[in-house]
Amino acid sequence: MLARQPEALPPDLVDACITEFFDKMFTTVPILHRGWVQQRASEITTSPEAYCVIGALCVYMVALLRVEMPAPSNPLSMASTRSQTNSLGLRLVEDIKRMRNQTDYSDNPTTGTILTSFFLSAGLFNLERQNTGWFYLQEAITFVKMMRIHREESYSTGGPQDVMNRRLFWILFISERAQALHKHRDILLHETIDFPQPDPDDPVDELGIKGLTCLYNMFGAVDDRFSETWTSLRSATRVAWPQNTATWLAGLQQQLTEAVPLDLKCTKIQEADLRVTQQWLRLVVWQLSTASGCLSSAAHDESMTLLYPIKLSKELAETLQYIEVSAMDVEKLFDIAYSLADIIALNAVETGTYEAGPGDHLTAFLSFVSTLRNGETKFVGLLQAKIREVLPSLAISLGLLHPPPPPPTPSSTRSASSSGNAHQPLIPPLGRLDGTESSVSSPYGSPSAMTSAPPHTSVPMRFAVGRQVASPASPDAGDAATTMSMGVSRSIGSPAGSTSE
Questions:
Q1: Complete DSSP assignment for 132-147
Q2: What is the pTM of this model?
Q3: Distances (CA, A) of 265 to 200, 206, 213, 229, 319
Q4: Tens-digit pLDDT profile for residues 110-160
């Protein structure tokens, strides 16, 4: 028997996490086979590796979906607050690390070793431990190379182990690119093996591979040239733009547009993940267009214009109002919403009275961000702060900001002076994010929001995509500034928080 704390990984938590994974996340992360997982779950009291794999899966599910289980099983089981959720997740991480130290996993890695590192990284990213999450992601990739899973000649039998290893490679390929773009970091994995095939007798598995194919189609665009250009935006060296930069960027936009078929048959959770990822990557490429000076008000290609984020946000908002968003990537959605707020602040677009506009879409995104992970992420406060900063009128309509007091009238001034009391304006109570305090109807059940700050001649725009830690009030000195042809000063940077532990 293993020497472990019996309450650290209670059976109810294990059962709940396995059920939720296969019910909600398998089609997004189609690695595990249910029978394989259940076998490992039955071995957690006798096998350190089984304990670590199942424990890491639980970290991922607790962090991503706030998995619930009956309270009597464990007082810390279902965290009702962010601090409790983080406490449970990080406690499981520490227990797994202690258990791993009882083995020589680094000298003799297995597929279970890689799965443990991968799920730890995914869980830690969702617990907002970005640097530690990156460490475990790179650890998983290192084990892949040690075991030569990145070499096609290693796949000789085509058996269940080969199937799992091949899928694991491609999920790590996609995960590394997604996180590297967030943090401007280098990539290590490249396309060196064949893509996995679905089980023809399993319709759910077929859905999972379809979704994985779409992700590959998108992140396959993030090649060495893309990665080096994007990463160099944060370095002190001059960016080496490719020849025919505008053509290259337009080609990337076209590839991303076609990566996810409009008529794709998939689950609602899959669709949310794929659509958010697609629009986020299109926004990343638009950021490259901004930094390269390719944007123009006269461009024939819509992706080369200032208002492209408006189009992306409209498409995404219209999709998300009908689909499941519980497992959506909150950071990608935050990036999209953050940049949208900057574009709205330019007063660069108008909408009809009865038409949902960019402000409505931003309101919808704030609602989604406030819902994901029970609203217990730093991104809720950061997005609210951004709206207060650049769109005070919208902030007031959402109840995020008190309206300014009305100017005193001569009669009220005389009255206040004669009575010796200062004028005390009546401030209405704060509204709710669902818009119930607003009298304006919106397609998303939130206040209509084509209201913004007064016009500016030059707006400092703090884009969120590809950001490092930088407060809006204290710009990161390492940001690469760029001036667009439209006279708008910008810098590739961000709000606070994403790379610190």
A1: HHHHHHHHHHHHHHHT
A2: 0.79
A3: 16, 10, 13, 34, 14
A4: 999 999 999 999 999 999 899 999 999 999 999 999 999 999 999 988 899
